[in-house]
């Protein structure tokens, strides 16, 4: 931990599920958790995630099934990671469990976790949205268990299958194949991703505003972009692990529920990410009414400006991409 303490907990999909379940509370909607865990971890994981809105039939016991990663904090934001075990890959048959889903959140920790063939099958068997966090696909593992960044070699094959692509600012260079520095470069890159197939590309910048680029509904050839601020004063940053996982769940929930509105989706995603940063717990998220209260408090002026933007076409927040 940044404080020098040592902590051990279940993470990754556990953060996304915990965030999503707060949003689904008291609704008739259900989430399906698809993951592999080792037999010795199964009871603890099922107890952690147990919830009436969660289907755990996709949580499968596999020998050495739990991905194990040791994170060493260099400071409050930067970490070194060493991996001692890799989850066995998903199979084509397991994709059938997700066929009826309205949306699927793909969060590989390693490039082998979710084979491209599985995503291609998923694209065939479901009409649901496919959201990909690119993190694991640009992460390699050497013989010492050290995780390192690498180029996304088969991006051209993945992008046509994906609806929403997410990454952070440091990951963009491994997708783009070159470092990106200026806002203009990030905008052009994100718009290029959207032009290649996905509906939207979301880039996060830690405690700075996110960038979202999207293809306009019913105006397929027009691509827009906007910056969305993050919530920075909920409390001190205690642990950034899981912020991205939680924010992805928030984005996808809002995108499905609010008619594919990309900006509102980033707002909920940013909010859940900030709530996670202010907590050391996996279940770091308050009930939905409190989450909405945080949004009203911190995004009221931004949303008012967004409405003016829509009514007056002043382009204070939403901009059309004209380059490329």
UniProtKB/TrEMBL annotation:
Keyword list, A-Z: Kinase, Transferase
Keyword Transferase: yes
InterPro entries membership: PfkB_dom, Ribokinase-like
Residue span(s) of domain Carbohydrate kinase PfkB: 154-282
GO molecular function, one term: kinase activity
Domain of life: Bacteria
Protein name: Carbohydrate kinase PfkB
Taxonomic lineage: Bacteria, Bacillati, Bacillota, Clostridia, Eubacteriales
